[in-house]
Amino acid sequence: MMEHTYAVIMAGGGGTRLWPVSRKESPKQLLPLLGKETMFQSTVARLEKIFSPEHILVVTVEEQSRVMQEQVPSIPKENYLIEPAPRGTASVVALAAGVLRKRDPQAVMAIQTADHHIRNQDLFQYLLRTAFDVADKGYLVTLGITPTFPSTGYGYIQQGEALDGDYKYPVYAVKRFTEKPDEATAQILLRSGDHSWNSGMFVWRVDSILAEIERQMPELSHVVDEIVTAWDTPQREDVIQKLWHDLKPQTVDYGVMEKATRVAVLPAGGLGWSDVGSWDSLFEVLLPDMNGNVSVNSQHLPLDTH
Fold it and tell me: Distance between CA 91 and CA 61 in Å, rounded?
């Protein structure tokens, strides 16, 4: 099955909450925030342990794609799918799935983002391979993160019954999605013991996700069908420019996952995951010295510095 597996990196964000380091012309995924590699380079390096560069696609905007191709020249240029303008993760998923179905009708895709940090990469590979097995049976699979505190910044996924199957990791049917709760609700969800944070990492067959998009978001489905039909023709750019800007921005969580029927979750503890979406989450990942100082990519001589 692995010959039909692909990774799709969503990499068009601006990272505004990490201002002033992250800016429009140099967003966080293109910066070496955690070491010598940029976050985009680290994401690709993590995925290249499972996928060949030819099986890694990147959805981003034009100005970022040029820098990304310089940072990771191993990914073929035709694997960069360019959004004329950001229209939410639902449109990213639909476009990537449509292009992949045209290339490989049996494709199974893993949705990743360019700004996640994952410390336990062995567990990540194990989870992803299990998720592919589950997705091959027609499920839309999400990787959950076992919550460690009552976060109000993440969505939550409630797990239902365990799925039957000879899986190498516990897999559950999804009972309910709860978007970013208030503090009191987050406390309740944490204590329940059957909720995971929504990591935004998904695995599914392209035919499964495109069928759900067609059912729940028919306008987006129609637009992507037209774009993909013109994909290998000289009219591609004209068709994209004509249709893309009128799409209503929507996330794949709201637009598809919350009302989908066959959804599964793999709740992952010990993954060492962070979405590095703010200065607080960045400092949770970076390790300070004995005086609490954090120094990245620099030679720092701390003189009475705490």
Answer: 13
For β-strands 195-205 and 108-113, DSSP reports them as antiparallel
pLDDT tens track for 13-62: 666 677 777 677 777 777 777 778 888 999 999 999 999 999 999 998 88
Cα gap 155→257, rounded to integer Å: 12
62-71 and 39-47 helices cross at what angle (nearest 10)? 60
Residue 83: both structure tokens together: 């959004």
**5 Cβ neighbours under 8 A, 6+ residues apart:** 50, 51, 55, 107, 108, 109, 110, 132
Burial (CB < 10 A; 0-12, 13-18, 19+), residue 84, is middle
Q: Could you give the maximum distance between any two Cα atoms of the chain, in Å?
A: 64
Interior/surface letters 124-138, b for 16+ CB within 10 angstroms, e for the rest = beebbbbbbbbbbee
**Phi and psi, residue 77, nearest 5°:** -60, -35
- Its pTM stands at 0.88
Distances (CA, A) of 209 to 15, 136, 140, 294, 300: 27, 12, 7, 42, 49
